[in-house]
Write a structure and sequence with these properties.
Layout lengths: L8 H16 L15 H11 L10 E15 L3 E7 L4 E7 H4 L14 E10 L5 E12 L15 H6 L1 H7 L1 H24 L3 E2 L5 E2 L11 E4 L4 E5 L4 H9 L4 E9 L11 E10 L3 H20 L3 E4 L2 E4 L5 E4 H9 L4 H4 L5 H10 L9 H13 L7 E4 L11 E2 L2 E5 L1 E6 L2 E8 L4 H18 L9 H8 L5 E7 H9 L18
Parallel strand pairs: 3-5, 6-10, 14-15
Antiparallel strand pairs: 1-2, 1-4, 2-3, 4-5, 7-9, 8-9, 10-11, 11-20, 12-13, 15-18, 16-17, 18-19, 19-20
Length: 503
């Protein structure tokens, strides 16, 4: 890449000359390694600890070696100050000509954005700033591009997502903690399941049948096998195979891929947790979910009361529970019973919804039901709520309720007006499962709809060997991170969200 032809060519030209000067002096501007004694955070904590017992005379700590990116550089003739940031903290560096000697001249070829290594003594300035007095400077990486202006920063949303590395540098104090929290949340979730006897497993990402969810898949072609494959839309059917094989408690945290739109809560690739527990049902899983979310919040945030948008949300159990029909009736006024019993059809449901200001398009029955819930009910579910007992037509993989076969043992969990969990008492009757798959195939043929489940013959074969009663769960990890970090866009909790192509 020719840097001189890029926007801001004068800056690149200046940095190119500095790079050349460094090399002419025999200085490698990209050395292969550098050994530091402490992170910036460790150095700060070490200094504070060493001075706790000395109230009158501050102690100087010698032989400290740090490294980081220059975020500020202030030269004053025979001395200079720099702020360097590593992955833990920012620390001030004092560089003096009378201490550094000829090494001081390297400052002429340094810029904000360069990465340097510095050795010296930790002390404290008269203003109380912990500072490393440098006795040696080593340039570790010459930056050829300028960072965003100090006072204006990186504010362009599209650029922040496209160039996340620059976002992390420029908006470090705001952005980095979100992703540190994400890591802590994942660690806490894994610990929760591991402590309950679950084992973490891996299942295929490239699959011959995109089944296990109502979603449109991404399609690819495997050249060596000369066959069409799909990016997985769910891990469900493979995890159930493991239940059939005798693993009674399994979970997987991984990427899913759905060829759908992009909005505040959807990204075409996203992270989910799916878990399955033999000899349990959706009631057991409801208790697991409310315990999981509250425990993770307590561990990571130190509280189960979170602030999201303008609301204070209490995550502690027990959560509110409403049946699907109760929720629809409460928030839309629609009585679903005549539609479930076949006294009225889906077209009449669409009309009734529109009469109440719920704009639902024509489509397969499961999409119509789901849209009514999304538009009329979901915005009201700010406090943690389980919506239970969904219509059979919406849930081809869930077991019917004994006392009402028009409904299934299923729940969706909502927090902050956003779905965060989905669970079934899993259907384990292979003949009924084949029938349900066929109904989905019929819907796809009738409506030319990609967002229906697909028949997986190998899974049906596995089911014929016998799967015990099982409770399954899917949780949107990205949405949990949104809630626990106070973010309202999924793109703010994914390092590299999917973006439209540049103009």
């Amino acid at each position: 890449m020719n840097l001189m032809h890029d926007k801001g060519g004068d800056v690149f030209a200046s940095r190119q000359l500095k790079l050349q000067r460094l090399r002419e002096k025999g200085i490698d501007p990209y050395p292969p390694r550098f050994h530091k004694s402490h992170t910036n955070k460790q150095a700060r904590e070490l200094y504070l600890k060493s001075n706790q017992s000395s109230e009158e005379h501050a102690t100087t700590l010698d032989d400290v070696t740090l490294a980081g990116r220059i975020m500020a550089l202030r030269t004053m003739g025979k001395s200079a100050f720099a702020d360097i940031r590593d992955g833990t903290d920012k620390l001030q560096i004092l560089m003096r000509r009378d201490v550094l000697g000829a090494n001081y001249d390297i400052l002429k070829d340094l810029d904000i954005g360069d990465i340097i290594g510095v050795g010296g003594s930790l002390t404290q300035t008269r203003t109380g700033e912990i500072t490393l007095q440098a006795n040696h400077i080593t340039i570790l990486t010459k930056s050829m591009r300028p960072l965003p202006e100090k006072w204006h920063g990186l504010r362009d949303i599209e650029q922040r997502y496209r160039q996340r590395y620059l976002d992390l540098i420029a908006n470090n104090e705001d952005v980095t903690p979100i992703f540190q929290k994400r890591s802590q949340i994942l660690e806490s979730i894994r610990r929760f399941f591991n402590n309950r006897g679950y084992i973490e497993v891996d299942t295929p990402i490239l699959v011959p049948v995109a089944a296990g969810a109502l979603a449109r898949p991404f399609i690819t072609h495997h050249k060596a096998l000369d066959r069409e494959l799909y990016m997985r839309i769910a891990t469900e059917l493979y995890l159930k195979r493991l239940i059939i094989g005798g693993f009674d408690k399994v979970y997987e945290i991984g990427k899913m891929f759905r060829n759908e739109g992009i909005d505040a809560t959807h990204n075409p690739e996203f992270t989910t947790l799916e878990s399955y527990e033999a000899y349990s049902d959706y009631n057991n899983i409801m208790e697991l979910v409310e315990t999981l979310i509250s425990d993770v919040a307590q561990e990571v945030l130190g509280t189960t009361a979170i602030k999201y948008r303008e609301d204070t949300i209490d995550l502690s159990p027990p959560w509110k529970r409403l049946t699907y029909c109760e929720a629809i009736h409460q928030y839309s006024g629609i009585d679903l019973q005549p539609f479930l019993e076949g006294q009225k059809d889906t077209n009449q449901l669409i009309i009734e919804a529109r009469d109440r200001g719920i704009m639902v398009d024509k489509g397969p029955p499961h999409q119509v039901y789901d849209k009514i819930l999304s538009l009329s009910v979901e915005p009201n579910l700010v406090q943690p709520t389980f919506i239970t007992d969904h219509p059979l037509i919406m849930s081809p993989l869930a077991k019917q309720k004994y006392d009402n076969p028009l409904l299934v043992e299923r729940f969706e969990g909502f927090i902050g007006a956003m779905e965060i969990a989905n669970s079934f008492t899993e259907l384990n009757d292979p003949q009924e499962q084949r029938h349900r798959f066929q109904l989905q195939e019929n819907i796809r043929a009738e409506f030319a709809d990609e967002e229906t489940d697909r028949t997986d013959e190998d899974f049906l074969t596995a089911l014929e060997y016998g799967m015990p009663p099982t409770g399954g769960l899917g949780i949107g990890i990205d949405r949990i991170v949104m809630l626990l970090t106070g973010q309202t866009s999924i793109r703010d909790v994914i390092f590299f969200p999917q973006m439209r192509g540049p103009d």
